C-alpha cells in the first residue's frame, strides 16, 4: 500500500494530500530510510514521522483498503511520541 494512502486510512494524517506533502518534504522515514509518498508500506514496517516539533514513531500492524474510525487505530502501534525543542 502507498505511504500516503496508509497515513490517511489509518487517520495518522487526516488528508491524503497533506500526507503526500509531508512525505515529499522528507519528513517521513520507513525503517530508517527516507520515504516518498509513493513508497510501499508493509506490515511490520516502522514509520518515523515529523510534524513540526513532534516526532511520531509507529509500527504498521495491518493494511486495509478502508476502515471505520474505531478500527483505524488498530492499523498501527504507537512506539514513541516526542517533542523537539527549538534551540534558537
Automatic annotation (TrEMBL):
Q: Which residues form a coiled coil?
A: none
| Top-rank taxon, per record | Bacteria
Query: Transmembrane region positions?
Result: none
Gene3D superfamilies, per database record: RNA-binding S4 domain
Please name one Pfam family that this protein belongs to: S4
Q: Which UniProt keywords apply?
A: Protein biosynthesis, RNA-binding, rRNA-binding, tRNA-binding
Q: Where is the RNA-binding S4 domain?
A: 1-64
Q: Which InterPro entries does this UniProt record tie to the protein?
A: RqcP, S4_RNA-bd, S4_RNA-bd_sf
Q: Name the PROSITE patterns for this protein.
A: S4 (PS50889)
Q: What does this protein do?
A: Key component of the ribosome quality control system (RQC), a ribosome-associated complex that mediates the extraction of incompletely synthesized nascent chains from stalled ribosomes and their subsequent degradation. RqcH recruits Ala-charged tRNA, and with RqcP directs the elongation of stalled nascent chains on 50S ribosomal subunits, leading to non-templated C-terminal alanine extensions (Ala tail). The Ala tail promotes nascent chain degradation. RqcP is associated with the translocation-like movement of the peptidyl-tRNA from the A-site into the P-site.
Give the family per the record. Answer: Belongs to the RqcP family.
Complex and partners: Associates with stalled 50S ribosomal subunits. Binds to RqcH, 23S rRNA and the P-site tRNA. Does not require RqcH for association with 50S subunits.
Q: What is this protein called?
A: RQC P-site tRNA stabilizing factor
Organism of provenance: Candidatus Enterococcus willemsii
